[in-house]
Amino acid sequence: MTSSWLIVAISLFVPLGVSVANGAASVSILNPPQTLNPGASAVINTSFVKSPAESERRVVIRVDLHDADTDEKVSGGISDNGGAGYTVSSAQVGCTVPVPANASGQYYFKATVAPWSLNRAVVAQYKSYPTDGTYPYSWDIGRSGDYGVTREVRYLGSVICPDYPGNTTYCSGVAFETFVFAFNNYNGSYAHPYIGNILNSQNMGTFRRLWYGNTDGEKLAARAIPEWGAGREITDIEEAQEGDFIQLWRHSGSGHNPLFVSWVRNSSNQITGVRYWGSQGSIGISFRTEYFGTTSGINPARFYIGRAAKPRDQADYDWALGQSDTKLTPSAVNSGVELWPWY
User: Which of 18, 207, 210, 216 has the fewest beta carbons closer than 10 A?
Assistant: First the structure.
């Protein structure tokens, strides 16, 4: 496993009047149209650059059309690379924005670079757990009704994992509940009814069994998440980011299902190990570091990563990594009506 970081200085031409936001990412609107046609669509070209320190690996570009007099958003378009998001650190991206048929007057465009993933919510959820032994580790496959969770897990009003006496946990249970709690809380805040394509409690039961390795004992979360439309498997290890769900296997044959925190690298910037969070022996919920090896330690050929995807919604703006607009250079709508000739 090798890696290298290449930071490229990019000089961007920004038309007069287009503001560029500073922060986790910058975005500019390139050559905005001077005029717009009612009922037609405008392709707005944008250019974004992510800060090297930004942890979000995949981004989405939104371009919205606003009434220049009222600031009201009247339409918008999304470019998300076919649903996968853009993994590059910089790019020029076109976004198609419809112009309402009844448009008149002046309008401006607003571009937003938004996170593709739900990882911000997942990280906030896992960091809410104590790591002081409150939830000790215990895994006994012969213990009926023990799902390894810290408390009852519900979905759409149904109990998916009941609470088990003693507050004991194990890795798949804590990872699963972290995913469900983070997504449920997010959906409650942004008015989404479902997690991915999980449309009822029976679906969630099937999803959980896949996550726990009951129906596929190899990838677990990295298979369950994309199979049920809730995200993707990440196959490029350099793309891993905090809050991803990992399934690792050791050369000894034992496995683990925690959350990714960070890579451990040597002086040559090679990945040598992984720091993760989850429920593990002795203390239970805690952080731990393990190392890759050729005959012992983690088997790099059996290391899988799953990531939850964020729906496209208001949180794109609430979590924006960068924004810009053309307020200073608004576009005028062609009326399509000829003036009466002078007599």
Answer: 216
